[in-house]
């Protein structure tokens, strides 16, 4: 049985998107890559990939940032699960979530996509919704601002000061899911970052 986990950080390719709220998944994977001590390489599945272990002798993981746009993340994710022979139940998708407040991390498996087109595309490509989601709260758009406009903007100045703590918390949550299981990780990480 393959004990490898695929951790996918959702976002959009290109430097113009790199600091957007929608790219928080990529940011969390950059933190995990820093912890592992490696760098991403281009993979034929149209993703930047880093293979490593979470800690010395820890679980084997494949960190992946699809090079496709967010809304068509499913193709690269499905190709990576096939290439590495990873079951959907061992896929962790890290993504922005407008339905929870900024500075909050929530975890779940399966369920709806809440209007998140990146998740919808992954569910379609994997033919299941039963994969883990690490939901990184970016808050709701102010006033009548369009949701797409909001998530394609950089974090506000006050948020940028708190962002490193949020990314650290989300990376800790990913590690907890893999090392301790979802239920234990939810007990530990369903809190607002202080």
Give the secondary structure arrangement, pairings included.
Elements: E1 5-9, H1 24-36, E2 41-43, E3 47-53, E4 60-66, H2 74-84, E5 91-97, E6 105-109, H3 117-126, E7 132-137, H4 147-151, H5 157-180, H6 182-189
Parallel strand pairs: 1-4, 1-5, 5-7
Antiparallel strand pairs: 2-3, 3-4, 6-7
Helix pairs in contact: 1-5, 2-3, 5-6
Distance between the termini: 39 Å
Number of helices: 6
Question: What is the multimeric organization of the chains shown?
Answer: single chain
Briefly note the CATH topology name: Rossmann fold
Q: Please name the CATH architecture.
A: 3-Layer(aba) Sandwich
Mean of residue pLDDT values: 93
Which CATH class applies here? Alpha Beta
Largest sheet: 7 strands, mixed
Strand order, sheet with most strands: 2-3-4-1-5-7-6
Derived from helix and strand composition plus strand pairing, the structural class reads alpha/beta
Content of β-strand? 15-25%
User: CATH H level: which superfamily?
Assistant: Peptidyl-tRNA hydrolase
- What is the chain-wise order of helices and strands? EHEEEHEEHEHHH
Q: What coarse outline follows from CA principal-axis ratios?
A: globular
Low-confidence stretches: none
Q: Using only CA atoms, what is the Rg?
A: 15 Å
Question: What is the count of structural domains?
Answer: 1
Tell me roughly what share of residues is in helical segments: 25-40%
């Amino acid at each position: 049985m393959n004990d490898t986990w695929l951790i996918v950080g959702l976002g959009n390719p290109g430097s113009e998107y790199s600091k957007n709220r929608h790219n928080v998944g990529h940011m969390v994977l950059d933190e995990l890559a820093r912890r592992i001590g490696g760098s991403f390489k281009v993979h034929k599945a149209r993703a930047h990939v880093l293979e490593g272990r979470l800690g010395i002798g820890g679980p084997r993981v494949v960190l992946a940032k699809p090079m496709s746009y967010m809304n068509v993340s499913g193709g690269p994710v499905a190709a990576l699960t096939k290439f590495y022979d990873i079951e959907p139940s061992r896929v962790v998708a890290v993504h922005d979530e407008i339905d929870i407040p900024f500075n909050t991390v929530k975890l779940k498996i399966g369920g709806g996509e809440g209007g998140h087109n990146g998740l919808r595309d992954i569910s379609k490509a994997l033919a299941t919704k039963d994969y883990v989601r690490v939901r990184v709260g970016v808050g709701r758009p102010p006033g009548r601002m369009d949701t797409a406009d909001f998530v394609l903007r950089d974090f506000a100045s006050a948020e940028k000061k708190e962002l490193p703590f949020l990314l650290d918390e989300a990376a800790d949550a990913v590690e907890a899911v893999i090392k301790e299981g979802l239920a234990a990780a939810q007990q530990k990480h369903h809190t607002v970052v202080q």
